[in-house]
Amino acid sequence: MSGPPTSDADSAIEIDPQVLDEDGSSFADFTEELDDFTTSINSSISRYPFENGRRYHAFKPGAYPLPNDDVELDRLNVVHHMIKKALGDKLVLAPFENVHRVLDVGTGTGIWAMEMGDAHPEAEFLGNDLSPVQPSWVPPNVHFEVDDIESRWAFGAPFDFVFSRTLPCAVGDWPGLVSQAYRNVKPGGWVEFQDVDMVFYAEDGSYSPSSDTALWVHLLVGAARTAGKEPCPGPRLEQWVRDAGFANVVHQKFKLPLGPWPRDARQKEIGLFNLVQAIDSLEAFSMRLFTQVLHWSPEEVQVLCAKVRTELKNKSSHRMWDYHVVYGQRPTA
Ligand SMILES: C[S@@+](CC[C@H](N)C(=O)[O-])C[C@H]1O[C@@H](n2cnc3c(N)ncnc32)[C@H](O)[C@@H]1O
């Protein structure tokens, strides 16, 4: 029988007397040691700053303008269900086969990676994010780590599939990010980028460019770009993916109604999900950007958000925005 490759494999490991109970008869519980250890490694990345009543990420502070508190995590899960419904109950559209290693870039709550992990027990899923907000009870093939996706990627082995979803106002250098995905996916492997265009519109002229909603979107897009973060990556994904060198590139666009105004039952449900998340997104997107970039007071931000909230609930405007899905394959030669 072959043992582990250590020189003292046959000798017993000595027990630290401090882990024995007072009478020496049974082992103490390690809960305290585990708690101390995880607290010390996690404290710097989870010592979250609070601003204007919202909680933000602590690793690379200031890199991302949206909060990471429970209200925001609930919103991300609503967005997840909305997008899945819009894509025909699919989590991904790329036609990959035989995946073993998958990366979810900027994983958020990790819900995509966890559902994919359940659906593909043969593959390992890694999700990374600035915030360690993912649950600890996850499928055994799903792992999360804290990382800055705009830093140089340093993974031990390439992936079969790299996925990224809804990163508006998160990324400064999109061509750089897509190129890192290219370098970190195997030849023959796939990437998929799904992202938004935050500009709202209506097909029947019921969205007024002089509305408070249009003003909020205009200010937000400007503030995010001033801060160096692209708020509307969706329409530009295809070009970035082609420029990075991917082949077999496919671009699909989905209209997402904002409110339950469509007649079609599926679109109506998508619209309801979208309205719920949009109402919660107003302060999430604009509080930091408007106070720090536009130098508004928090109260001014709240007043505009309240006006937009009222407009969004108004049934007479048939607003929507576009969601873009782009996938491509790294050539084999
Ligand atoms: C809108 S959420 C989307 C989360 C997830 N992709 C999804 O679709 O459910 C954007 C996520 O990107 C993360 N993020 C933003 N900038 C990042 C960066 N530079 N490095 C890593 N994660 C980042 C945020 O912390 C947040 O969890």
UniProtKB/TrEMBL annotation:
Q: Listed GO molecular functions?
A: methyltransferase activity
- Gene Ontology biological process terms in this record: methylation
Entries under Pfam families matching the protein = Methyltransf_23 (PF13489)
Keywords assigned by UniProt, alphabetized:
Methyltransferase, Transferase
Q: CDD domains from the xrefs?
A: AdoMet_MTases
- InterPro entries given in the database record: SAM-dependent_MTases_sf
Gene3D superfamilies xrefs: Vaccinia Virus protein VP39
Q: What is this protein called?
A: S-adenosyl-L-methionine-dependent methyltransferase
